[in-house]
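Fresh eyes needed here. Kindly weigh in on this sequence plus structure tokens:
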Amino acid sequence: MIHAPLKIRVEDCKRLKIKKKFVTGAIVGKAEIYAVKKYNSIKEVKMDQKLHFASKNVHDRTFGFRLKNAKSFRIPIRWKGQLGFFDVNLPKTKIKNTEIVSDIVDEENRYQWIGHH
């Protein structure tokens, strides 16, 4: 899961040329970690800086994570979050209108096939 913090780092948005408004304090997507790189020095981190979207403040970075299959959620899940990795135990919800679920699943399948045939 990918979590958006409550506070947006304005300087990082400027650096990455991101101008749109963000959802904050929510789980906004998902991705798979496929590789982890351990950094032994600040020099190593600076050599890989172009690969990092995180802040340029590299003094305390020890690991770099490579992600794949990133996908944003159309409906973010409100969640307080915390620093680093954390567990998320979402409550079970009862769905009264199963037609809505069917429509969402159908829409999800259509998005997966767009441009893949």
The longest strand covers residues 63-78. Residues 98-113 form the longest helix (16 residues). Helices lie at 10-15, 42-47, 98-113. The chain has a mean pLDDT of 77.
